[in-house]
Design goal:
The protein is about 30% helix and about 20% strand. It is globular and about 80 Å long. Keywords: ATP-binding, Disulfide bond, EGF-like domain, Glycoprotein, Kinase, Lectin, Membrane, Nucleotide-binding, Receptor, Serine/threonine-protein kinase, Signal, Transferase, Transmembrane, Transmembrane helix.
Length: about 575
Amino acid sequence: MLYVLKRNNETQILTPRSNHSGSDNYHRVTLNFDGVLNHYYHSRILNSSGWNILWSQPDNICIKIDGDNGPGSCGYNNVCSLGSNNRPVCNCPKGYSLVDPNDAYGDCKPDFSISCDEVGRGSPDDLYSFITIRNTDWPKSDFQKISPSTEQDCQNACLNDCFCAVAIYRSSSCWKKKLPLSNGRIDTSLNGKAFIKLRKDGVLRPLSPPSPGFPIPESHQKQSWRILAILTSSLLGSSIMVNVFLIGVLCWGFFHIYKKKKVNVFRPTSHVTDTVCHSFTYKDLVVATKEFNEELGRGAFGIVYKGVMSIGSRNVVAIKKLDRVAHEAEKDFMTEVNVISQTHHKNLVRLIGYCNEGPHRLLVYEYMSNGTLASFIFGDLKPTWSQRTSIAMGIARGLAYLHEECSTQIIHCDIKPQNILLDDYHVARISDFGVSKLLMINQSRTDTNIRGTRGYVAPEWFRHSPVTVKVDVYSFGILLLEIITCRKCLENEESYGLEAILVDWVVDCFQEGNLEALVRSDIEALNDKKQLERFVMVGIWCVQEDPLTRPTMRKVCQMLEGSVEVTIPPCSCNFSTTI
């Protein structure tokens, strides 16, 4: 029997009573890495049948782990089903493969591209098709519900929506899902169908061995090898004249396959792995960028270019050319590179390498395919509320890591939507440490010149006060309010009037109890007013004029997640005095 003895000496029994007594059996309890607690027994009699399961908790971990944050029992885009001893088994659906082939419980990535820029490439029906699987769902990835609906209407709705990756049809209702898909599970009680959208012309990479419900097709390359094998067999059994002909076909086939496999990427002069911050020559980066001919963006200290080189598992990189490096910054360049290269967090853009050759200072970063947060939230198509809240929490976690979890504390000093990038799954990644001020762990403040961007700069910059991590908290508060409203912090006064300064307008709406005005017709946000109010209050707390009043980023994370109560903030945040 497994029980818990409480402080008041009461006993809470966890396992059911059984006939397998301790005098006749050995007992052991194992808490597995996947979260399943198993109670086993083993007969003391020699030559017994081994360990047998007596009890496990939870009875279905695929369903029990059902949080709003995180991927669930398996990784993003993965599907959980129950295996032996109630342990989870994770499988990528057809058209998806593991990001890390050695981690079966990890994230899955699509083996094809999903894009909203398909002009001139054909209709959605020409580009995409569906596979159907039963009793499977990703319940935390909805962005639209259509009711009533038929199966065909459900498929058509997903087919014609470039954000839709999966549609779930059940009980005459349709739920459209977006990437990344979370909390995937197989549940026989669902009694519904999942329509997974696949690209017709996508070349699928070889996946793991197929499992029931998730058939995996052969890749085009594998099919090509099979054709060559058939040709070879024919060659051995044919006449001399036919053999000569087939030899020519065989040679052409090998040439054709290897020509298709050849990728036009630059390979650095020395071996490069995914885990090492590598030193590149300036010539390496000139070749990789084709003489810096494709610009991705401009930052405070230089221009970012797109590059192509073979680095571990990736080919495309972003190369930042620092063109205004001060003498003292140049002297500390390698120190900063060393500090930044030691940062590893899912919400930070990772530094892959650098160039420190003569007058040249360049940084090589992983490439983020979905661009900046600014273009995402200020564009014509408004992101969903769940996308925006997930992005906000990701940025908060990244800043908390920089402030409190690095061996060398890092103040970013220029948090703004242009410095937040989005990866393939729209996960927020903090970028641009070129304006960061690095602090040793035994320091708490630094005096420095004003850094940052108008509208996001904390008041203490202008007062020549000591600068602490709270300047990033202030900038995050401004950014959080922009994410909530999908509006810039400063707008044209002629067009927006009293609403031109975002913070002042948000505070007015909060005091008047008019939060609906902040999200206007965003039904998803209005359906969760508690979360909306919590996010608004956190934003107001972050932009307090007194840095000591602002919370730490660790506290901000807890407040956004709802694990810490958010009290009503004071309104001592006159934003107009700081711009």
